[in-house]
Design a protein that fits this description.
Length: 113
């Protein structure tokens, strides 16, 4: 029989997986930093693994720590992710080019050639 700890971890982990799937849906490779995408993916997998372990009746300190850490990040960062949009600091937009490089792209030549 599952303990109260297993049931609590299972419920919290499944909620966290849902939160992270929504976040991952908003992130796009090439538009957002890879480290942010990887971090959210890792938290999602950790919560999924904790849910599986709790389902089997073996949740322990590691599963509790993973779920608490994942939910803590969601809670702390919730204000900046409001409205379903990714905060601008996580964008990896194009680097602006200086005037010489723009001239080279437009078909001109750079002065250092």
């Amino acid at each position: 029989m599952k303990s109260a700890l297993d049931v609590g971890v299972l419920i919290a982990a499944l909620l966290a997986v849902g939160f992270y799937l929504c976040r991952l849906d908003a992130l796009r490779y090439g538009q957002h930093k890879v480290s942010v995408i990887v971090m959210h993916g890792a938290w999602c997998v950790a919560c999924g693994a904790a849910a599986e372990r709790a389902w089997e009746g073996g949740a322990g300190l590691l599963e509790v720590a993973a779920v608490v850490g994942a939910i803590a990040w969601i809670w702390i960062s919730f204000y900046s992710w409001g409205g379903g949009s990714v905060p601008p600091q996580y964008d990896s937009g194009p680097v602006p080019l200086d005037e010489e490089h723009m001239r080279c792209i437009s078909g001109g030549t750079r002065s250092d050639r």
